[in-house]
Write a structure and sequence with these properties.
four-stranded mixed β-sheet, Phosphoribosyl-aminoimidazole Synthetase, Chain A, domain 2, alpha+beta, globular, 60s Ribosomal Protein L30, Chain: A, seven-stranded mixed β-sheet, 333 residues
Length: 333
């Protein structure tokens, strides 16, 4: 089996990038010290970066190189979606074990490129180095008209708190990935979502075009943690209704079987990559109409005038405080 040690750095780069053809907007692409790209006049350049580190974000027995490439693309695309933007260009950073088989890197790149190309996003550069473990990073650049850019700091008291799609899928998928093969086979859709999540790029662009969407963020760290980010930036509070939280029946059934809490998966599990946003009551019908053909929308609560106070109204109508408990690398690892 051929490994990176036998191939070499520059031969690997050539092999990974030989089929990448730059578009007209790329003035200078792969092969120089830096890339040069064009952004349409009047637009802002959005930039985000995320990574997948072996032993921190993933374990090889639970995923494949191709799925890992897909996921790295999706989590970055989700950040651009949360701003209401359009993804354009990516730069890839790989730190790889010298004895890693070449085909595993090629499979990773295949998943990465396929997911990026689905949103007309092209790779324009990157870097490769050696590492004891597999480390991959993606810097993603996008565009946005200033008037369409959504931030975390615009939520207002009285706004409805809305989410796209359903919640708890990411945490459920991770829990399932550690279970028996027979259980995985019974719940392939849940496992597939966790391995290859979907970024809500089109929904984000639609919401970006609506002035009444006051604040937006993607749900990567759990509903509680990401809603807390909006509340902190906007100097407001929030109340969430447990009975309004959208969750698939398959997730509920899996939670019962694994003796896990669906509510905990939703609030603290993370990796759902749905959009969380706030709108005034009078704009809700337009939001639903605009998003109807793309994704479902659920109202899960309201923004309050009590800064920093996050509470949950339970099924029994009791109200209790929500602890954000968002993912923190240095507290979790």
């Amino acid at each position: 089996m051929k490994t990176l040690r036998g191939l070499g750095e520059f031969a690997l780069i050539e092999r990974l990038t030989r089929k990448i053809k730059p578009s007209e907007a790329v003035t200078l692409g792969i092969g120089d010290d830096a890339a040069a790209v064009s952004v349409p006049p009047g637009h802002l350049l959005l930039s985000t970066i995320d990574s997948q580190v072996e032993g921190v974000h993933f374990e090889w027995p639970l995923t494949t190189p191709e799925n890992l490439g897909h996921k790295l693309a999706a989590i970055n695309l989700s950040d651009i979606a949360a701003m209401g933007g359009t993804p354009l260009y990516g730069l890839v950073n790989l730190a790889l074990p010298p004895d890693l088989p070449i085909n595993r890197v090629q499979e990773f790149y295949k998943g990465l490129l396929r997911q990026l190309s689905a949103y007309n996003t092209e790779i324009v550069g990157g870097n490769v180095s050696a590492s004891p473990n597999f480390v991959s990073g993606l810097t993603l650049l996008g565009k946005i008209l200033p008037k369409n850019m959504k931030k975390r700091n615009g939520a207002r008291p009285g706004d409805f708190i809305c989410v796209t799609g359903s919640l708890g899928k990411g945490a459920a998928g991770l829990a399932l990935a550690r279970e028996s093969d027979s259980l995985k086979k019974e719940n392939q859709a849940i496992l597939k979502f966790w391995q290859t999540p979907r970024a809500r790029v089109r929904a984000g662009q639609i919401l970006g075009n609506l002035p009444d969407v006051h604040a937006m963020i993607d749900i990567s760290d759990g509903l509680a943690g990401d809603l807390a980010h909006i509340c902190k930036a906007s100097h407001v509070g929030a109340i969430v209704e447990e009975t309004a939280l959208p969750v698939d029946k398959s997730i509920q059934a899996l939670a019962i079987r694994l003796k896990k809490s669906v509510l905990n998966w939703i609030l603290h599990g993370g990796e759902d990559y749905e959009l969380l946003f706030t709108v005034p009551e009078e704009a809700l019908s337009e939001v639903r109409v605009r998003l109807n053909a793309v994704v479902s929308v659920s109202v899960v609560g309201k923004i309050t005038d009590k800064p920093g106070e996050l509470v949950l109204q339970k099924r029994n109508r009791i109200v209790e405080k929500i602890e954000p408990n968002a993912w923190d690398h240095f507290l979790t690892i």
